Amino acid sequence: MPVSRCLTPALGFAAMMLASTGSNATEPPSGDPVLTVSGRISEFNVDNHFVFDMAMLEAMPQHSFVTNTPWHPEAHEFSGPLLREVLARVGAEGENIQAIALNDYKVDIPVEDARRFNMIVARLMDGAPMSVRNKGPLFILYPFDNESETQSQIYYNRAIWQLKALNIE
Amino acid sequence: MQATRSTKYWLILISVSLLLVFSVVIYIQYHQSRLLNSTIQYNESNVSWNVFQVEAEALRLGNHLYDTLNAGTPPDPEQLQLRYDIFYSRVEVLKNNPTAPLLLDEKNYRAMLDSLYRFLDHIGPYFESGDGLDADTLRSILGQLRPIQRQLHDLSLDSVQRSGRHAELRAAEVERQIRISTGLIVFQLLLTLLFFSIVIRQIRQLQTSRSQFSNLANFDPLTGLPNRRLFRDRLEQEIRKAQRADGRLALLFLDLDHFKDINDTQGHDVGDILLKDAAQRLIRCVRSSDTVARLGGDEFTIILGGLDRTDTAARISQQILDSFGEPFQLAGRKDYISASIGITFYPDDALDVNALLKNADQAMYVAKAQGRNRFHYFTASMQEAAQARVELINDLRNALCRNQFHLLYQPIVDCASGAVIKAEALIRWHHPERGLISPVDFIPLAEETGLIIDIGNWLFREAAKQARAWRQSHHPDFQISINTSPVQLQPEGIDVQAWGELLNSLDLPGNSIAIEITEGLLMDNGFATRLMEIQELGIEVSLDDFGTGYSSMSYLKKFDIDYLKIDKSFVRNLKAGSSDLALCEAMIVMAHKLDLKVIAEGIETLEQQWLLNSTGCDYGQGYFFARPIPPAEFDHYLTKLDGQALVT
């Protein structure tokens, strides 16, 4: 049916418009919070933070790539929203991201990295959610295999796992 | 050849070494790049961090358990689960770091992992469900955690120390490899230099041998003078120069007089000494800008460029002739050798190399013909004569088949009886346009072109037929003598067998023919064998022009000569009491002693005949008796003579 084929992208676009401008954008998460963004952001849903639950991250456009990492013996497919889209979602205005892990490990990621590389906030490894034991639930990843430039200690250190919070500075 | 082969092996050896060294260097660099691989480096540098993180997480877990124990409230299962999972994940990270067993004491590391997993597996059920975590269990877990924390602390300290050492070892390893590869690269450089030095040396050798080759190609090895090739090149160059400058050049063609005799009688070594000396004399006589070349044999050419006056060529030619006036030192004895020079000018006489060479050559022949030891300019009439010569040779080629030759016969008279039983056959060429041509003019051409062989065979056949006729009609012992050229006596000359067959077919004995040869022939052994073959047919041999050449008695003895012909120069001035008469007498006496008959040539007067008769000469020939006449007239002459004989 050619008509509906033409309609589908139009409808999708309308839904996107609703999602970005609709009132539920600033509503607090309904599920367990998995990622709290704070600092220089313009969108808030809980006090002066923006809190994501897994469903909200899942609702965003998903990006995936296969890559080797220093922490896995083989290559795996990782998928999740692009970091720059997460930043856009919260209206981030800073140039630096302080990423914090469950064990309070902290690392600075320049916002520039998110612009230059298709970094993702990975939710899935090989299509399955990641447990805390398996460096989940969220894992910021650079496309190491696609961008050979990122195969260095600097970027390996910035790939933070068991991510729980982002502080935009 | 041997040197080239060993060089080739060296080059192959060096190439293989270079290839090997290159490969090793590339391997080392690959190895280094692996050592410096960021993932491995990251993992290595993270081993201590990973151990430390496990230790920290163990501490956090412990603290959390303590807090729970002290608070006295029931534990928060979610928090416990999280702490457990984080701890678990830290252990996993350590386990999954591939460089950990290499950097840590492997035994300790494995033991550590074992106790950690044992501990985790043991407490797992409590943390996953949150059930049964009463105070006693918590204390027991803490009790189990304590030795693990100590163990982790030791491993952590050990890892820090080991990573320091590892970094040093790695640096040392890298340094060692850099040293090795630097050494190899220097070696490579030396090999490359060696390679190129060998190649360059080879190229130099090649160039030297090439220039030697070009020397060989352009210079005469005996005299060191430019050869024909280089001479032509130089002459072309000089012609172009003269053309541009609107100038004049002279070409001298020089030939040593009687060089062949020196070569033949004294050997080629002596001839070579003479040529070298002559070359030196020529160089001394010309200006340094002039070219002296040797075309081959005893032929030299001299190019005198940039002449403003033609008499310069004459001056230099005279200098050359003067310098040849000094005797040559040949094999311990002095010899006088003169030279003949032909001179031609560019652009006056000719414009190109070939024409100039031909001119100078012709002029040289004129100088020779005029008595040698002189120079002669090329003239236009010489050009015409040369042209005529070429035409004459062409006509000569056709003369035989067009029946233009005929024979005349001059009677040879028996001095005692006046009888005629011998005649000399003399060839004549009746040219359709130029009339009668003297043998003096065409025989040299026939000899030069080899036509003399065919002409000689024709003459023999004609003479034999005539001899048969006169033997039948006149006298059974009639003999006709024919002149023979040295060319005919060469290996590819007379076919003796064919002559023999012809005589057989005519039923003639060999002595119906006598061949006349010049005495110079007898000196050459090559002619001697051929001469003896002819004698074996029974043909008699008559020595022509006796007294004008070497007149060597030993040769007369050696060869079975039948007749001596005293040259007409002796007969011409024969008078009573003259020295010529004495000479004739001596020759005749000597000939008779050697059992030879004597024929005197050129008898023109009664007095001459008388005098010769008185000295005992056997035969006479000359206008006094009869001039050379055609066969029919000869018949008539014989008939008349026979009549007289009958009368007397």
From TrEMBL, chain A:
SUPFAM superfamilies to which the protein is assigned, alphabetical: Oxidoreductase molybdopterin-binding domain
InterPro entries reported for this sequence: OxRdtase_Mopterin-bd_sf
Signal peptide: 1-25
Keyword annotations: Signal
UniProt keyword Signal, yes or no: yes
UniProt-recorded name of the protein: Oxidoreductase
Species name: Marinobacterium nitratireducens
UniProtKB/TrEMBL annotation, chain B:
Ranges of residues in domain EAL: 389-642
SMART domains: EAL, GGDEF
Native species: Marinobacterium nitratireducens
Molecular function in Gene Ontology: catalytic activity
Alphabetic keyword roster: Membrane, Transmembrane, Transmembrane helix
Transmembrane segments: 9-30
NCBIfam families: GGDEF
UniProt KW rRNA-binding keyword: no
Cofactors (names): Mg(2+)
Descriptive protein name: Diguanylate cyclase/phosphodiesterase
Keyword Cell cycle carried by entry: no
Record-annotated GGDEF domain positions: 247-380
InterPro entries: Biofilm_reg_signaling, EAL_dom, EAL_sf, GGDEF_dom, Nucleotide_cyclase, Rev_trsase/Diguanyl_cyclase
Highest taxon of source: Bacteria
